[in-house]
Amino acid sequence: MSASAVPTVAGLGEVLQLFRGRPSLTRADVMHLTGLSRSTVNQRLDALLSAALVVPSGEGSPTGGRPASRFTFHHDRGVLLVADIGATGMRTALCDLRGTVLAERERAIDVAAGPDPVLTTADAMFGELLAGAGRGTAEVFGIGLDVPGPVDFDSGQVVSPPIMSGWDRYDIPGWFAGRYACPVLVDKDVNAMAFGEQRSVYPDVRQLLMIKAGTGIGAGMILGGEIYRGADGAAGDIGHIQVTVEDAGTEPVCRCGNTGCVEAYAGGWAMVRDLREAGKDVTTVDDAVALVRTGDLLAVRLARRAGRIIGHAVADSVSLINPRVVVIGGQLARIEEQLFAGIREMVYRRSLPLATRSLQIVATRLDNRSGLIGLALLLADGIFAPGRVEDLVARG
């Protein structure tokens, strides 16, 4: 049995995982990869075929006898619905069961308006996506949402979010329960972004740090190839690390209620605040980014300072978890020249050479789709986790 084979106790879930990770397999392939007997493989495969989770995919290469039938994961068996919810906008998508995005919608929202109007908008967008694909709610295998706040992953509840008024402990999965008979996954937005970047762009990197520099500042961590959420889901909240800034007067008040947080100096909302106080005509983070890109001296100076302040927190994170890649995303990543110079300066100044000798600090390659893509892949993995496949087969 090869080093990549699964244990001989492979059940339905483990066998389905083999098909999810490959274009197609024969019965003999499954026997080779698992070490299972022919009769056991036939039993596992027949159950997956009956549940339409695996389907025939043509014929294999002749081996002296008749061609061996090949089988593949039935990725069109149903659909997944995902919503990437930000502070001021939301992206939704309809995906196949591999987590591949098939269709998208985007709409402006105000997350501080509360859960009911935001989730109602998401549900309406889901309805549009299903109608456009000719699918019904009964074909939805799972729903995934990410939000710009701390999440108790096990319960799917947002906990004490600084900018999400009315969301604290709100039962998001319960809101969808009467509409869809499927699991509902909820996670922090930057966790989904980290997962999307790692799986889609850096699949061979096992340690990755994702920084979201947008309206707020947050981080998601991939450790050992998996999302690291911490004991209670609060890992990665670097935007609320307190820092000392030499050229600052009074420490600014953060949206979390504390003073002197990284986000209170370097978040997009803080840049808008400082520019407006200086008489600049800006109202949104996008306005601030556009002003930096015009070369406005004050906006450029604030962007470079933001980079150094964010870099302070990133340097501490690099020293703590030693990632191979640091990916910067969010609206402020669009001012790469100004922001990244400050981040790199602080990381290479403050972190030890061993932690930085092979470190890459790069801009997102998925841009504003990283959260959506990561959420779809995360949801697909959750729906078809080995321990859940038995239930899917039993439901047929």
Automatic annotation (TrEMBL):
Stored PANTHER family: GLUCOKINASE, ROK (REPRESSOR, ORF, KINASE) FAMILY
Species this protein is from: Actinoplanes awajinensis subsp. mycoplanecinus
Classification via Pfam families: ROK
SUPFAM superfamilies in UniProt: Actin-like ATPase domain (SSF53067), Winged helix' DNA-binding domain (SSF46785)
Family: Belongs to the ROK (NagC/XylR) family.
UniProt-recorded name of the protein: ROK family transcriptional regulator
Record InterPro entries: ATPase_NBD, ROK, WH-like_DNA-bd_sf, WH_DNA-bd_sf
Domain of life: Bacteria
